[in-house]
Design goal:
The chain has five helices and seven strands; from the N terminus they run αβααββββββαα. The chain is of the alpha+beta class. It has a single domain, classed as Alpha-D-Glucose-1,6-Bisphosphate, Chain A, domain 4 (2-Layer Sandwich). Keywords: Membrane, Transmembrane, Transmembrane helix. It comes from Galbibacter orientalis DSM 19592.
């Protein structure tokens, strides 16, 4: 009886170790869209955390979400915190780097439903004088044992659709403005 339990326990330990070895260790998800607006106008809009409420898919998932802002919005060090329903969780976003008319880089620190940190960015690129590509993405590391669960979940499919919806709303919003 005890030897059977030891074999089972040993098998479980080997299985977890094997899954830990083959599990994904990192993620990198991004989507892009072309907006019919000049790059400087697009960049001037996307660099502000408060403007994200207008096109973020997560704002739609919880319109009652509680948010606070600290620092100078649109500048390095600005922080947006949120606390929402089960669809949006709880966390904060801090602007880490802004390269005018190129990049807005931030760090996402999730508290709920589980603690994690991701690097997020919005990049812009001029296609034509009146056309700009906006790329939205985020990346990070999976820690053990969460990495094992990611064998069975496709983060790109799960979050990619939200990025596509958000970018479509951003495009519509910016192109609607005169």
């Amino acid at each position: 009886m005890i030897s059977t339990l030891l074999y089972i326990l040993g098998g479980v330990i080997l299985l977890v170790a094997f899954l830990g070895l083959i599990a994904p260790k990192t993620y990198n998800i991004s989507r892009s869209i072309q907006v019919n607006k000049p790059l400087p106008k697009v960049f001037e809009y996307i660099k502000f955390l408060k403007n994200q409420d207008q096109w973020s898919p997560w704002t739609k998932k919880d319109p009652e979400m509680i948010q606070t802002f600290t620092g100078v919005d649109g500048a390095v060090g600005a922080i947006s915190t949120w606390k929402g329903n089960k669809d949006v969780g709880e966390g904060e976003q801090e602007l880490l780097k802004i390269i005018s008319n190129e990049l807005v880089q931030s760090e996402l620190r999730f508290i709920k439903p589980y603690k994690s940190t991701s690097n997020a960015y919005l990049k812009v690129e001029k296609v034509l004088p009146e056309v700009t590509t906006v790329e939205w993405g985020f990346s990070g590391d999976y820690k053990f044992p969460v990495s094992i669960f990611m064998i069975f979940m496709n983060m790109d499919k799960a979050v990619g659709k939200d990025f596509e919806a958000g970018l479509a709303d951003l495009k519509q919003l910016l192109e609607r403005e005169h």
